[in-house]
Amino acid sequence: MSASDPLLQFEKHIKHAKKILCVAGAGLSASSGIPTFQSMKGTWRGFTSLDLATPEAFHDNPSLVWIFYSARRYTAMKAKPNNGHFALAELSKRLKDANKDILIVSQNVDGLLKRAGLPSETEVELHGSLFDYRCTEFHCSFTGRNDKSLFLTPILREVVPREAPKLKPCSTRSDLIGKQSVKRLKVNREGEYKTSTLLDDLTNSSDFEPLPQIDVKEGLPLCPKCQGLLRPGVVWYGESLPLCQMDKVDQFISTGGKVDLVFVIGTSGKVWPAMGYVERVKKSGGHVAIFNTDIQNIDDIRNDKHTWGFQGDAVELLPKVLQPIIGIQYKPRDYLRR
């Protein structure tokens, strides 16, 4: 391995780094069986994430949205942390033991980094967690954290599909936008006309086993303080990222010395806020290491003295490149039970 080898250069830099920021995206958990719900990639039971992961969808059909998120909770609970999760958890512990600083900003909601042993104080769950929830009533501030129950109500246990969510090719974007805006008149059992949306029509699409409409007060998660409807503790499309989490990242970057190195893992690093973090670190003289199956402008990155691009699965890459710090015995003894 020559002195100009990118891996050797990276290993030398990380050994001397005193402050590291990691931005982890969906690619980190893909090998654990966690699907990525992106509007341009596919659908779940005929729905894209834009159909279900919005405040409007929850307002129109909380039953369907809770079934969707309960299925995702189930999938995440059945998934196992992979070697990439364990490598980051061990890196965090080793750096803390050496009085160095690290913060991992996770864009994932699956909780797998915690299960791998990552200390909670070193993680920012920027998009929330499938295992958190909060009350929707304006006057109530109740929140639940890290609830690892497979299902939050008996009825959800009965009706939620157990199979792992499968992505199917979706229509073109213009088709989807057109369908979402369609409103139709339907006749109810009393012979009255009512307006229905695409969510109503597809809830019991003939392409899938019918999903029931769960009564809010009888089968959906309710607040133990005020009996209001709970909602998943995740950030939906159209919602702002949590200010407290953003402040934690900003404080980490701006205080206690400059960030020497930022990891971009399982994401392109070209979207906000990851892009903003990368640019801030580079402007202050820090280096960037990208770990992703698809790295855009890889040739330009290879010619950039301040950026490393490691193309491939983070599950395989992270244990290898972090070996000088975490060693080869980086997984806990009980890793099979996590």
Question: In short, what is this structure?
Answer:
The protein is an alpha/beta fold. It has helices at 6-16, 49-52, 55-60, 62-78, 83-97, 112-115, 154-159, 173-180, 198-203, 216-219, 243-254, 274-283, 298-302, 314-321, 323-326, and strands spanning 19-24, 101-106, 123-125, 128-135, 143-144, 184-187, 193-196, 230-234, 261-265, 287-292, 307-311. The protein has a six-stranded parallel sheet with strand order 3-2-1-9-10-11, with helices on both faces. Strands 5-4-8 form a three-stranded antiparallel sheet. It has a two-stranded antiparallel sheet with strand order 6-7.
Q: What labels describe this entry?
A:
2 domains, Rossmann fold, 6-stranded parallel beta sheet, 3-stranded antiparallel beta sheet, 11 strands, alpha/beta, 338 residues, elongated, SIR2/SIRT2 'Small Domain'
What would your notes on this structure say?
This protein is α/β, with parallel strands linked by helices. The chain has 2 domains: about 1-35 and about 80-125 and about 240-338, Rossmann fold; about 35-80 and about 130-175 and about 205-235, 2-Layer Sandwich (SIR2/SIRT2 'Small Domain'), CATH 3.30.1600.10. The chain is built from 15 helices and 11 strands. Helix 6 links the parallel strand 2 (about 100-105) and strand 3 (about 125).
